[in-house]
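Before relying on records like the one below, remember that each one covers exactly one chain. Contacts with other chains, cofactors or solvent are not represented anywhere in the record.
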Amino acid sequence: MHPLDGATQLERLSADRLAGRTSPLYANLGGPFGGWTAAILMRAVLDDPRRQGAPVALTVNYCAAIADGGFEISCRERRTGKSTQHWSLELTQGERVAATASVVCGARRAVWTHHPATPPVIPPPENLPMFDAGGRSAWVEQYEFRFERGVIAFGGRGSKELQAPDSLLWMRDRPERPLDFVSLAALSDAFFIRAFVVRDQLVPVGTITLTTHFHTDEAGLATQGSHYLLGYATAHTFSGGFADQAAQLWGKNGLLATSTQVVWYRE
């Protein structure tokens, strides 16, 4: 079993309730990697027999740090229409709400299509070095990153100058794993926090809300297989202790997902 599949296993307790456990493989400072949280909430909907259509959007609100150990997920179908289906979820530990989420699924149809966005230009992955985190963070070891620009300096480079907020890289699960909506949800949050990149140092941060829009279906993901994704991330503003972050994930046949998030930070 791939580590991601093992880490996102859920036990169904009832029609609307599931149970799971955190995994040390996807640990981060102060709780699990946020992409793992997105992935396991996505798994809850994907595995529900009531689901209709493929995921179109996922929003996760990170309410509190998830403690190591067990948790439960409430997964409720809110409305199913002709074109879309809406879900709401809560991840709890005891009486404590650690995360909430909404998922929208939909049936994609053969209609008018237009693709004005174009992927960034980047050398092939074999021409770029593999990023080495030096074992500093468990979740980073579960991914293969090959940066063209915007690499993080975990120890800091001692520079006082602000860096560009952009990162461009190849990325995929390690070990390789065929792409699905669970792994795509996790990868949408696998970009390092922009404050780390811009300030060239580690500061206290935390994602408070993340929205991922999916632009493909199961057939498109099957075509991607385990090939690298082209990832691009940037930021537009840092103000008052909150910053934005926007990302794109490109596959062999076009744009697979876009994401936006708001990050809390402090000195």
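The first helix runs from residue 3 to 7.
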